[in-house]
Structures are given as structure tokens and as C-alpha cells.
Amino acid sequence: MISKKDRSQIRVKKHMKLRNRFAGTAERPRLSVYRSNMHIYAQIIDDDAQKTLVAASTVQKDVKAELERTNDVAAAAYLGKVIAERAKAAGITEVVFDRGGYVYHGKVKALADAAREAGLEF
Question: If we measure between CA atoms, which residue out of 9, 37, 29 comes closest to residue 87?
């Protein structure tokens, strides 16, 4: 009998395939997205130095206070705006987008579009 892999295993495998294609550098760090059932997380990472330069999530009190819910498209769009503002404050204008193995649709797309509108280039 053939056993079927669950969605999280498939996502991790897709993410590893994506990570083999690109990495964040000091000049152009990686914007990584992770979403759980309750929250959305975004980090800007320099893979050469193995450091997180900027991070934002819907768990943080200042972000959570502005949101009605922490796991919908509106929350993802707000988080994209927040991560872009924090990146610009840190002097980061260009990033490589890492969708984390998720389909580029819904929350992931809303976060990316909001980050682009707020000034990040990718």
C-alpha cells in the first residue's frame, strides 16, 4: 500500500528545493516567510553571516494590537508593511523572497505585495 505524505512534509521538501536555488547575502538578504495556524512570521536573513537582520510577526504586541485577527490576509498585508518599514530603517532596500515552500497565493502573496508597496524591492 502506498502511503501519502502529509502537507507539512511536502512543504518542507519544497522549501529545501527553493533554498538550494538562492541564499541571502549582505547586499541582498533573504525575506523568509513562515505561517502557522495562528500566526505569520517574517524574517530578513543574511545567510552568509547566519544572522537575522530584521524580524516581525503577528505574535509581537505592537503588531498584534493593530490587528483584529492574527491569521488572515489582512494580518499578512499589515505584517508585510511592518517588515518593510523595519528593513528600511535598518538600511535594507533589496531582498530575495523566500516563500517557505508555501504556494504564492493568499497570505503569502498579500505579505509580499504589501512589502513591495512599502518600498522593498524583489
Answer: 29
Tell me the C-alpha distance between 59 and 43, whole Å.
13
Between helix 73-89 and helix 107-117 the angle, nearest 10°, is 40
Euclidean distance between CA atoms 43 and 1, whole angstroms: 40
Q: Backbone dihedral region of 61: left (phi > 0), alpha (psi from -120 to 50 degrees) or beta?
A: alpha
pTM for the structure as a whole: 0.91
Over the stretch 51-106, which tens digit does the pLDDT of each residue have?
999 999 999 999 999 999 999 999 999 999 999 999 999 999 999 999 999 999 99
Residue 122 has a pLDDT of: 92
Closest alpha carbon to 115 in 59, 27, 56, 53? 56
Identify the band that residue 120 occupies on the pLDDT scale cut at 50, 70 and 90. Answer: very high
Rounded distance, CA 110 to CA 108, Å?
A: 5
Beta carbons of 122 and 42 less than 8 angstroms apart: no
